[in-house]
Design goal:
Blueprint lengths: L13 H4 L6 H17 L4 H20 L3 H20 L3 H38 L17 H16 L9 H9 L12 H8 L7 H22 L3 H10 L5 H32 L17 H7 L2 H18 L5 H17 L3 H25 L8 H26 L3 H10 L15 H16 L15 H18 L12
Helix pairs in contact: 3-7, 4-5, 4-6, 4-7, 5-6, 7-8, 9-11, 9-19, 10-11, 13-14, 14-15, 15-16
């Protein structure tokens, strides 16, 4: 089946570079959008919405204009379904309308993302029982961001069906909500109840709000450009190139790879939130310092929050209501994480990753109950030791599951785990991180630790001296500019 997308997304065409947040092309694009949006259209939010819609379609069209039709179709389906749901109380008709939205959106997602996976799986299954099947796979291009905006627009019709929100009659505002360019291609996966009302009301430029947005953008660029992009070589080395990496090599490189993933995706989310703030919008938080979580359940409340919370609200909770099994919570948990794995990609490794994550979730719950009884409100030495142990097991579970998430195949996963039997020596470790990225990682996690109770890791207090604040801004900006030459795509653009 070849190398999965997660290993080839780093190779960019010239077209890709035009719309990445960390490029001069996007800086020019956003400056033009910002100037027109605030200086020419600030007195009329409906004109601002129309302009944002045009800008968002232009932004997405730079990837591949052919797939703009998919966004338009999804928008029209859910806008129409929403209006019709509000006009009827007949439950059969309401069920039909919701089914129309679900089938319309999920069929497009299913075809472009999962068609070949299911055909290959069917072919393999039939071959086991001696039935041959002609090659029915197709050369299908995955539309960027389809997994994100599909779930986002589905939240609208589902919430109307549940009578949690009212449908909007403003088609332009709804279209702008679906295609909002800061978070269109990699989230956060917004809820209609949060983002759509912001399009329906006037917006005014707020200087303090914009400053926070700029801080988010700067910190997000630092995470992506300085840290994540500098660690890609380690990622390739362990999971693709190295034939038999030793145990010591993997123990050193695996945390580096996980850091790369986190800084890449969380960095994108922060940049997206910062850009949205500069336009007067507040996007939901997508990461909340997950590497300081001391349980698996807490970790998944902090990692990719917009996806995990969506699956809990629209899959897990409905499953609990309709299931009569005594173990429905366990089954629902496996369902959520298997779907989470499938959402990430049409590969058996992702499905197994989801199942393994659910298993770790249950094992960790038992560990929490076992050691929780020895915890005391006062942080004694025993309590601190237990807390450290729980934190360590949480991070261990996440990193072990990363073997399935990153591996191109099950064979590669097996090869990596088998090579752990070879201890290796320090001389045999191929450790490819240079001094500056290591220094940047320490800075990053230091800020994360001291700001872990705030909303993001570079939330500088006004009480800090202005000289110190501007010195930090200049230092981080210098680091970002120094590393901009190695422009690399965002990992989650493939999903």
């Amino acid at each position: 089946m070849g190398i999965p997308d997660i290993f080839v997304i780093f190779k960019l065409s010239n077209q890709d570079k035009k719309v990445l947040f960390q490029t001069i092309h996007f800086l020019f694009f956003f400056n033009v959008v910002f100037a027109i949006y605030w200086f020419l259209l600030s007195k009329n939010h409906r004109r601002q919405n129309t302009f944002l819609l045009i800008a968002s379609y232009l932004f997405y069209g730079l990837w591949d204009y052919r797939f703009l039709s998919l966004i338009a179709i999804s928008t029209i389906i859910d806008y129409s379904v929403g209006l019709q749901l509000a006009k009827t109380t007949d439950q059969k008709r309401r069920n039909f309308l919701l089914s129309l939205s679900l089938i319309g959106n999920l069929s497009m997602l299913g075809f472009f993302k999962y068609y070949n996976f299911f055909i290959e799986s069917l072919t393999y299954s039939l071959a086991i029982v001696g039935i041959g099947l002609n090659d029915l796979t197709m050369d299908i291009i995955l539309p960027v961001g389809i997994s994100f905006y599909t779930l986002q627009t589905l939240s609208y019709t589902i919430d109307i069906y549940r009578e949690k929100i009212e449908p909007t009659k403003d088609f332009i505002a709804f279209s702008a909500f679906v295609s909002f360019f800061p978070q269109l291609v990699a989230g956060p996966i917004e809820r209609a109840s949060n983002l759509l009302p912001q399009f329906l009301q006037p917006r005014q430029f707020n200087y303090d709000y914009a400053v926070k947005g700029m801080q988010m953008i700067l910190w997000g660029l630092f995470m992506k450009v300085v840290i994540a992009d500098s660690l890609v070589e380690n990622h390739f080395h362990i999971f693709l190139h190295s034939k038999n990496p030793s145990l010591l090599s993997q123990l050193l490189n695996l945390p580096i790879t996980v850091t790369m993933l986190y800084c890449d995706f969380a960095g994108y989310s922060l940049i997206a939130r910062g850009i949205a703030r500069l336009l007067g919008f507040e996007l939901m938080r997508n990461f909340a310092f997950p590497f300081f979580a001391s349980s698996v359940s807490e970790f998944w409340k902090r990692w990719h929050i917009s996806l995990t919370s969506w699956l809990m609200d629209y899959v897990f909770k409905p499953f609990l209501r309709i299931s009569s099994s005594k173990n429905k919570a366990i089954y629902g948990l496996f369902l959520v994480f298997v779907l989470c794995g499938l959402w990430h990609g049409a590969q058996i490794t992702f499905l197994l990753w989801g199942g393994l994550t659910a298993l770790f979730y249950l094992v960790d719950r038992g560990i929490q109950k076992l050691f929780g009884q020895y915890m005391t409100p006062k942080m004694t030495i025993a309590s601190k030791t237990i807390t450290f142990f729980l934190w360590s097991t949480t991070q261990f579970f996440f990193m072990i599951s990363a073997y399935l998430f990153f591996s191109p195949s099950l064979d590669r996963t097996y090869s990596l785990l088998k090579s752990m039997l070879y201890l290796g020596t320090l001389d045999s470790i191929e450790f490819k991180v240079n001094t500056i990225p290591l220094f940047a990682i320490f800075i990053f996690y230091g800020f994360e630790y001291f700001h872990r109770k705030r909303k993001f890791g570079f939330d500088l207090s006004p009480k800090i001296s202005r000289v110190v604040r501007y010195a930090l801004y200049l230092f981080i900006s210098f680091m970002v500019v120094s590393y901009l030459g190695q422009t690399i795509n965002f990992v989650y653009f493939q999903f």
